[in-house]
Design a protein that fits this description.
Number of strands: 14
Shape: globular
Mean pLDDT: 91
Number of helices: 18
Strand order of the largest sheet: 2-1-3-4-5-6
CATH superfamily of the largest domain: tm_1862 like domain
Structural class: alpha/beta
Low-confidence stretches: 475-480
Number of domains: 2
Distance between the termini: 59 Å
Bound molecules: iron/sulfur cluster
Strand content: 5-15%
CATH architecture of the largest domain: Alpha-Beta Horseshoe
Length: 480
C-alpha cells in the first residue's frame, strides 16, 4: 500500500476582532476584574461562532490529485499540528498576518518541511515573500494548485507558479467541505458566485487582485453546490461576493432558481438594490435574511476623493429603507476619516443611522493597506503614521489604531470624535432596540450589536492609549 503525501493548508488568525477580540496593549496593566471580563468575553465570542471557514482553502482542498491528501489547519482553533508528518504546507497570506505567516514558514522550513506561500499579499508583493518560501503561488490559485500538487507527487516542485490570466470560472470546479469541522463555524455554507469588481474604490484591493471584469460561475453549478452543501449543514448560507447584485440579470436568474429550495441566506450587496425591485423581490423570496452594504461615506466629497462612485449620496437613505421594507436586515458599513470628512461628519452619520434605522451599523476607520491606491497616496503625502515597510503595522484590528493622519481633522480631535461616535452608536440600549426593530433575524441583530458594543469599547480603550503615546512619544508614530 502506498501512503499518500500529506499537505496542510493553513489559515492564520488575526490579532483582534472576531478571531478573539483583544486589546492591542498588554492586558497585564488592566485591573484583575477587567482582565477577567475581557478574557471571558473573548471565549464567549469564540464559542458563539462568529467565525466563517476560509473559502480560498476550501477551494484548494477540493482539488484532487492522485497520491495527495489535503487537510485544512485553521489556526484560529488549534495550534499547528507539528506532531504530524507533512510533505508540504501551503499558507494563505493576507497582509495583516504576513509577519506571522513568515514566522511559521521559517519554523516549518527549519524542520525540513517545504512551504508554499500564496494569497493576496504574496500576489501583490512576491519579491518580499520569496525568501520565506520554497515556492510561491501567484494569483487566483484554482488551477495553479493542481500543478503544485502534481509536481509534489512527482517530486518536482518549482519555485514559482503563476497564471497569465485569471481562471475561467464558468468551468465546473465543485467546492467540497469535507475537511471542515462544522461545529467551529457560524456556518459552513459559503458560496462564491463570481469574482472581479467593475469599481475602483481607492481603499480596496479586490479590483486590483481579481480584475475589473466580472467572471461568473454557471448557475447550474451554483444550484448544485447549494443542494450538496445543504445535505450536511442546514444552517444559513453566505454568498461571499462583494456585490452580489453587481450583475442584476445574473443575480435575478440565480435567486429565482434558488427560491424553490427554501434556504435562508445572507450576503453583500450595493445599496442600488433598493432601486432594483424585481431583484429585491427575488432576494426576499429566495430566503435573503440580511445583507452587508458598503455605505462607506455619506459625504459626497469623500466619495469623490476615494472613487466610491457606484451610488449617489442622495439615493442612499431611500435605497436602504426600500431594502429593509422588503424584510431584509441591513448591516451598513461606514468609514469615518476619509478625505472629505470633517468634525461635522459624525453628526451626519448619527442622523443617517436614526433616519434609516440601520440594523447593524459598522463604523470603521480607514485602513490604508499596501497595494491600494490610498496607501500610495497617503505615503506620498507624508500622512502615514508608521513605517510603510514594517509589515507588522498592518495587523488586522477593529478600529483600534489610527494608521494615518486624516486630511481635515487633527489626530487628537479625530480620535476623540470617533470614540464619541462609537459610544453613541453602540450601547446595550441601542442593541436591544435594534434587535427588536430588525425586519428579520432579530436575535442575530441583537447579538451583533452587543458584540460590537464590546469591540468598540476595546477600540476606544486602544485609541486612547495610542493618543497618550502620540503625546508622550511623537517619534513612535512619525517614523515616516
Ligand atoms: S469596495 Fe466594493 S465596490 Fe469598491 S472596489 Fe472594492 S469590492 Fe468593488
Amino acid at each position: 500500500m502506498t501512503t499518500k503525501k500529506q499537505v496542510a493548508l493553513v489559515f492564520l488568525p488575526s490579532d483582534s476582532g472576531v478571531d478573539g477580540a483583544r486589546s492591542l496593549y498588554d492586558e497585564g496593566s488592566d485591573s484583575g476584574p477587567v482582565r477577567w471580563f475581557n478574557g471571558a468575553v473573548r471565549n464567549l465570542i469564540k464559542k458563539t461562532q462568529f467565525a466563517i471557514p476560509p473559502l480560498a482553502l476550501m477551494i484548494l482542498a477540493s482539488v484532487e490529485v492522485p497520491g495527495i491528501e489535503q487537510t485544512i489547519c485553521d489556526l484560529r482553533f488549534e495550534p499547528f499540528p507539528f506532531d504530524r508528518s507533512w510533505d508540504l504546507v501551503g499558507i494563505s497570506v493576507q497582509t495583516g498576518m504576513a509577519s506571522k505567516a513568515f514566522g511559521l514558514a521559517g519554523e516549518l522550513r527549519s524542520r525540513g518541511i517545504p512551504v508554499v506561500l500564496g494569497g493576496p499579499h504574496v500576489t501583490m508583493f512576491p519579491d518580499s515573500c520569496r525568501p520565506h518560501a520554497d515556492a510561491l503561488a501567484l494569483g487566483e490559485a484554482d488551477d495553479l494548485w493542481k500543478e503544485v500538487l502534481s509536481d509534489l507527487a512527482s517530486g518536482s516542485l518549482k519555485p514559482e507558479y503563476r497564471t497569465d490570466a485569471p481562471p475561467d470560472l464558468s468551468i465546473s470546479r465543485p467546492v467540497g467541505k469535507a475537511s471542515l469541522k462544522n461545529n467551529r463555524y457560524f456556518t459552513t455554507n459559503l458560496i462564491q458566485t463570481g469574482r472581479g469588481c467593475p469599481y475602483r474604490c481607492d481603499f480596496c484591493n479586490v479590483h486590483v487582485l481579481n480584475g475589473h471584469v466580472l467572471r461568473q460561475r454557471r448557475i447550474s453549478d451554483l444550484v448544485e453546490e447549494v443542494l450538496r452543501f445543504r445535505e450536511d449543514d442546514r444552517r444559513i448560507f453566505f454568498f461571499v461576493d462583494d456585490s452580489i447584485n453587481a450583475d442584476p440579470s445574473f443575480a435575478l436568474e440565480l435567486f429565482d432558481s434558488l427560491a424553490p429550495l427554501g434556504i435562508r441566506w445572507f450576503g453583500q450587496a450595493t445599496t442600488a438594490l433598493g432601486q432594483q425591485p424585481r431583484l429585491l423581490d427575488a432576494f426576499a423570496r429566495s430566503g435573503c435574511q440580511a445583507l452587508l452594504v458598503g455605505i462607506e461615506s455619506i459625504e459626497p466629497s469623500s466619495r469623490d476623493a476615494h472613487r466610491k462612485t457606484q451610488n449617489r449620496t442622495e439615493e442612499l437613505a431611500g435605497n436602504i429603507k426600500a431594502i429593509r421594507q422588503s424584510g431584509i436586515s441591513l448591516y451598513g458599513s461606514f468609514i469615518y476619516g476619509l478625505d472629505g470628512d470633517t468634525l461635522g461628519t459624525p453628526a451626519a452619520i448619527l442622523d443617517f443611522i436614526a433616519d434609516t434605522r440601520l440594523d447593524v451599523p459598522g463604523i470603521n476607520i480607514l485602513r490604508p493597506n499596501p497595494g491600494t491606491k490610498v496607501f500610495d497616496r497617503l505615503r506620498e503625502e507624508g500622512r502615514l503614521l508608521f513605517d510603510p515597510d514594517d509589515l507588522s503595522s498592518f495587523r488586522y484590528t477593529f478600529g483600534q489604531e489610527m494608521l494615518y493622519r486624516p486630511k481635515n481633522i487633527p489626530l487628537p480631535d479625530f480620535i476623540e470624535s470617533y470614540s464619541e461616535l462609537t459610544r453613541r452608536v453602540f450601547n446595550v440600549g441601542n442593541a436591544i432596540r435594534r434587535g427588536m426593530d430588525a425586519p428579520s433575524i432579530k436575535p442575530a441583530v441583537l447579538l451583533f450589536n452587543l458584540f460590537y458594543s464590546h469591540l468598540y469599547n476595546l477600540s476606544r480603550h486602544d485609541l486612547r492609549r495610542q493618543l497618550e503615546r502620540v503625546t508622550a512619544d511623537k517619534i513612535h508614530f512619525e517614523r515616516t
